[in-house]
Amino acid sequence: MFIGRKQELQVFDRLYRTDHFECMVLYGRRRVGKTALLRTFIEGKAAIYFAGVESNERQNLENFSRAILESVKGSPAGATFTSFQSGLEFVFQRAEQERMVLIIDEYPYVARSSPSLASTLQVLIDNYRDRSRLKLILCGSSMSYMEDEVLAYKSPLYGRGTAQMKLEPVDFFEACAFFPHFAAEDKAIAYGLAGGTPQYLLQIDDQLSVEENLKRMYLDPSSFLFEEPVNLLKQEVREPAIYNAIMTAVANGANRLGEIADRIGEETNTCSTYLKNMIALEIIEKETPYGEKAAKKTLYRIVDPMFYFWYHFIPENSSLIARGAAELAYQRISSQLNDYMGHIFEEICKQYLWRQLLAGQSPVLFVSLGRWWGSDPVTRRQEEIDIVGAQDKDVALFAECKWRNELTDAGVLTTLVRRSRLLPYSKAYYYLFSKSGFTEGCIRMADELGNVTLVSFPEMFGKEV
After folding, report:
1. How far is 408 from 282, CA to CA, in rounded Å?
2. 3-state DSSP: the chain helix, strand, coil percent, rounded to 5?
3. Pairing mode, if any, of strands 395-402 and 427-434?
4. Under a CB-based contact definition with an 8 Å cutoff, are residues 55 and 193 in contact?
5. Domain around 227
């Protein structure tokens, strides 16, 4: 079942409709849905789909030959091309007669097994680009390889691409299409369990309760997701044990470099190297207070909700899960789920604000959103604002996000207004996001101020975003 990705499909269709050569570079994290997107795109089209394997050149060449022979009418029956150059040249020549798509999926596997492949493609593209209608798509999950060996200036393919796309996880509002029968709150929790990775979202069954889904996805040792983060790290890094220790520490509140090093018993220089690798893999990100670049204030946070949930809850409950005590493990997790969802709700609110901006419905034309924290010079207390987004040096929006079962009161708005004055913006707009709604006092105060938008969580689905 393929869900969403309408904008991405429109990009591919636009390239397909041209009457000249196109080369698209598609890359993104594992499980993000690249292959499903490509297979959906080529439905009903003259296309060759070839997926590289982590093997030698001969094996990949045989598979490439088979893909061509099975897809192109009039191919020499039963033949195997003697080289990638002969196979590729055959495809380029056929595309002089008709519009054709060639997908090389997991391109890094093929290119590593055949070091001359990039140069071969360079020569063929230069020779045929003016008369071939081939739509070549190079796809890969190794983001570092695709960026360094395909898109970078030093690559033989530099300048030959006509488009590139980094496929990101879907946002919360797109993810909701995977579980349309859930109530609003359950949709948020489901997103908190799976994040925006389509392969993980497909593990959710909206005919079951959130509790049943959580148990089935994470508390069953035979489930797809039970060891997924660990298995993914093993594919991407050496010494996964240290990476796992760092991830567990960050997921459980050790967000500064020194705290992480102390928690796992490693030197800060060692931890810094591992953190850089995880930032490159887009599993962890660095965070500084909005508008600041102070290295001493840098925090580290897990980007993907599935990784965050797994490392926050599963390692500490692994003994219970291994012994089949899923119910006991669930009780421990469910008692902390509301606190965990506070972080997820902040991310959902950011996505909502971005959608408002793109729809032309934001009072502030911000260029980025982030969290701010710092010291109040008067009280010397540490203060924090969930979301800040500035239009320029004068205008900014400030938002507070409350995932609580009670109504959000005027005190929250008062605190947000006070904290916003710690930042150097003369004109402010305020947003309060609340899971459960707002007290009459809060609504009255928002009306009096006039520059406040109150958004209850269920309203996010009713407004045009």
Report:
1. 34
2. 50, 15, 35
3. parallel
4. no
5. 219-335
16 in the same domain as 31: yes
Residue 412 φ then ψ, to 5°: -65, -40
Report the distance separating Cα 352 and Cα 365, nearest Å: 14
On whether the CB atoms of residues 382 and 375 are closer than 8 A, the answer is yes
In a domain, 202, yes or no: no
Q: What is the DSSP letter of 147?
A: I
CB 229 within 8 A of CB 199: no
For tokens 């102390």, name the residue: 262
d(CA 238, CA 88): 35
Total residue length of the chain: 465
Task: Write out the DSSP string of 194-229.
Answer: HTT-HHHHTT--TTS-HHHHHHHHHS-TTSTTTTHH
The amino acid at 270: T
Rama region for 321: left / alpha / beta (φ>0; ψ in -120 to 50; rest): alpha
Nearest to 304 by CA among 109, 31, 69, 103: 31
Mean pLDDT by 10 residues, the chain (465 residues): 89 96 95 95 96 95 94 73 94 94 97 96 95 97 91 93 95 95 96 96 96 97 93 86 95 96 95 93 93 87 96 95 95 96 97 96 97 92 97 97 97 97 96 97 98 95 54
Question: Among residues 161, 166, 222, 216, which one has the least CA distance to residue 194?
Answer: 216
Helix, strand or coil, per DSSP, at residue 23: strand
Question: CA-CA distance, 405 to 325, in Å (whole number)?
Answer: 29
- How would you label 358-374 residue by residue, b for 16+ Cβ within 10 Å and e otherwise? eeeebbbebeebbbbbb
SS3 state of residue 461:
helix
406 and 295, same domain (yes or no) = no
Whether residue 351 is found in the same domain as residue 270: no
Q: In 3D, which of 210, 246, 230 has the Cα closest to residue 340? A: 210
Residue 45: partners with Cβ closer than 8 Å, 6 or more residues away: 16, 101
Residues 6 or more apart whose Cβ sits within 8 Å of residue 241: none
Reported as half-sphere exposure (CB side, CA atoms, 13 A), residue 429 has a value of 15
Cα–Cα distance, 438 to 359 (Å, whole number): 25
